[in-house]
Design goal:
This protein has one domain. Helices cover about 65% and strands about 0% of the residues. It has nine helices and no strands. About 30% of the residues are buried. The N terminus is likely disordered.
Length: about 170
């Protein structure tokens, strides 16, 4: 008991406070939770707007110039896969934004949602132009940060999935 109080004094921690969530990464700071919630809300709102306006093939057709200016491998993906199936990819983007945004907002399956959303925005970086490219890059980085951290572990639904799903899916076990 006396050793614990001496350790608390030397570590600078308040008496009774545990140091278990510090550098070990057991739980993210609430700043990262704010990034997760804000990114999820932005995605959810953008996807809902697309669905409300009616998802059309023009959503993908407008990206043709972006794909044409992309590096060879990315251009081949865009021109030979994405642009050839505009209805499928337009719906995939709109519904992906809604579902992945809801998952990030709620902290539900944060790891796979963050990975998939980062992939969505990696494609958008090449497909869109102008200021949208910077926004896609920023949102992609935020999604990747959520996927690589335990952003659903604090104030998120992933806590309730602990033990019910594999740990690699939810980051809930060390």
């Amino acid at each position: 008991m006396a050793a614990d109080k001496n350790a608390e004094k030397t570590s600078g921690k308040a008496p009774g406070k545990s140091a278990s969530k510090g550098a070990s990464g057991a739980s993210p700071s609430f700043g990262l939770v704010l990034v997760r919630v804000a990114t999820g809300a932005i995605l959810l709102y953008a996807g809902a707007q697309k669905l409300e306006a009616g998802v059309g093939e023009d959503l993908v057709a407008r990206t043709a110039s972006g794909w044409a200016e992309s590096p060879e491998l990315v251009r081949a993906w865009g021109e030979n896969v994405v642009l050839r199936h505009p209805w499928f990819f337009a719906n995939l983007v709109a519904w992906g934004e809604v579902v992945l945004g809801a998952c990030l907002f709620l902290g539900l399956l944060t790891r796979p949602a963050g990975i998939l959303a980062a992939f969505l925005f990696a494609n958008a970086v090449f497909a869109v132009d102008g200021s949208h490219k910077s926004l896609a890059l920023l949102l992609g980085i935020c999604c990747a940060a959520c996927a690589l951290s335990r952003a659903g572990r604090s104030a998120g639904a992933d806590v309730f999935l602990d033990g019910k799903l594999p740990g690699w899916l939810t980051w809930t076990r060390a």
